[in-house]
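Both lines are retained for reference:
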Amino acid sequence: MFETIVVGVDGSEASDKAIRMACDLAQKYGTELHLVHSPQPETAVYATAAVAGFPAVAEMPTQEELDQAGEEVMKMAVALATEAGQGGVQTHMLRGDPADQLIACAERIGADLIVTGRRGLGNLAGLVLGSTSQRIMHHAKCAVLTVV
C-alpha cells in the first residue's frame, strides 16, 4: 500500500508519536522511511531543552546553533525509529518553512504518505495562521496522516 513514507520531525511529543506510527506502518508494508526536519529559530530552544548538556539559548539562535539543535533533534528521532524497529531510515535536514519543506521532500522522493504530529512546537502565529499539519493536508499531493 505504501512504498515511501516521509515523517515530519520537530522534537515534540506529537512528533515522537508520528515517528512511532510511521515505523509501525513501515514494518507492516516494508516501506522506506524518511525523517524530515526543518529547524526553526522559534522552536530550537524548546526542541533541545530536554537534551542534557545542550546549552539553553535566551536569544534568537545563530545559524550554527540552529544547525546544532537540528542535529540533536534528528539524532533523537533516529534513535526513536531504531528503538521502534526501523533501522536504515533516511534523514533530511532542510532549511525553510517546515510545511513547504516536507511537501517538497515528499514530492522529490516520490513519497505516497506524509506523517506528522497534529500539534508540534509551533508558535502563537501557528495557532492564528494555521498549523504545519493543516498546511500539509491542504497542499500535499499524496496521502497525509496526522497523529494525535
